[in-house]
Amino acid sequence: MDILKHIGRIIFAIPFLVFGINHFIYAKMMVGLVPSFVPGGIFWVYAVGVGLIAASISIAINKMVKISGLLLALLLLSFDLTIHLPGLGNPQTAQMAMGGLLKDTALLGGAIMASAFFGNWEKKSF
Question: How many CA atoms lie less than 13 Å away from 53 in the CB half-sphere?
Fold first, then answer.
């Protein structure tokens, strides 16, 4: 069964790599998703892309998964709160916002589980 955990970990990491790469390819289109109250615009699109790629690599190679999983969960929570929840208030974007909210919430849970299962939470005795 250990092999299934490792296959699952790698499969879980793949979408974040793709999402991160997309932040560089489609940065000009994504800048409109950055909330207007957040200064920096396109900087955040690139910064999130770097974070997604870094989290993906960390999870895939099983290094520093505790911290990368929790940071990824925090990033996904910020998407839920600043992008998807406000989108639910607009009838024209509500359906897409709900899909994004559910996707990112599920991935948030997966990131927390990856952190718990693959992060080294036990105290080491010396």
Answer: 11
Nearest of 71, 72, 83, 74 to residue 35 by alpha carbon:
83
What SS3 class is residue 47? helix
16-47 pLDDT, tens digit each: 999 999 999 999 999 988 888 888 889 999 99
Q: What string of DSSP letters covers 50-61?
A: HHHHHHHHHHHH
Q: Token pair of 73, please?
A: 């969960």
Please, what is the Cα angle at 86 between 38 and 100, to 5 degrees? 100
pLDDT digits (tens, 9 = 90+) for 55-76: 999 999 999 999 999 999 999 9
pTM of the shown model = 0.86
Helix (H/G/I), strand (E/B), else coil: 110: helix
Q: Do the beta carbons of residue 58 and residue 64 sit within 8 Å?
A: yes
